């Protein structure tokens, strides 16, 4: 839901064009909820979700660490006040010169998922700590992150042994259960895999100390999602089951769950039309679409709550599309979206739960439309 602070900002500032407004009070509340839910896990905010300097500065001041996918994100986190020991270079696909630059900046923790990546880290960041990402199936996630990243547990064992042989410090295992993961039990199987890797490495004389449990914590869209507390209980239970009383250091990497519900996009209806006299659905065209920041509507994976000034009127299923000259720029068509039948050109709508993965997905100037403007309050 849009907070009163966001509503007041839009009413007084009247920003032109589509824009995202992020309420830092919500971000701070979410950080507190994660810290309370998993008090023994270090929080590494996933910078890619929303790298606004104001968000990063707030989280750095609150004591957050940062999961970074590039040198640029590392520099953003450091500019916000994070020291290098609070940064993980969590991308498993890195240029060797970028590893060297991160190492020069003092970053000492790197993700890998194959021996080829280990070799790059060993050359560019000698003696650094590495953790190996393990594949998960991503079931229950609305935005899966499996297949492209990670390796099977048996290979993770070989990768970490090889890392140690090249002078790196084999530190642990990571996984990601999929973004917008609504199953609180999804971490169990991945933690079991991590425990297996720990045992196999111990038999080879290598003591791992870290499980990076990734992100996946959801934000509320059209359906309620479990609380941070519910995830914390489930994850701690899985750690206890699979590691007994020797629970290792743990990391979580919330991104969407940290900032998703803190942001609201204000958009405008540009056109309402039908494709034929017998068309069952109206087409509602907004001044923002897939290329303006709503890329996660791809395959209609994320269905954002949309509120309008006419929400008390009769509703009718609509196709919702963006403004660009690309036929892929349709947000919801397979599952038409109910909107008021009185909605018309010039009406402003609020697209809620858009604090994560919107500004960073926005095209630079497709069709000449400027990138999504962002205001942090």
How would you characterize the overall build of this protein?
- There is one protein chain.
- This protein is of the alpha/beta class.
- Helices cover 30% and strands 24% of the residues.
- The chain has helices at 4-13, 24-37, 53-62, 71-79, 96-104, 115-124, 153-165, 187-203, 228-243, 256-259; strands at residues 19-22, 41-46, 65-68, 87-89, 109-112, 129-133, 141-143, 169-174, 179-181, 210-212, 249-252, 263-273, 282-286, 306-307, 315-321, 330-340, 348-352, 373-376.
- The radius of gyration is 22 Å and the shape is elongated.
- It is an enzyme of class 4 (lyase).
- Its cofactor is pyridoxal 5'-phosphate.
- One of its GO terms (biological process) is putrescine biosynthetic process from arginine, via ornithine.
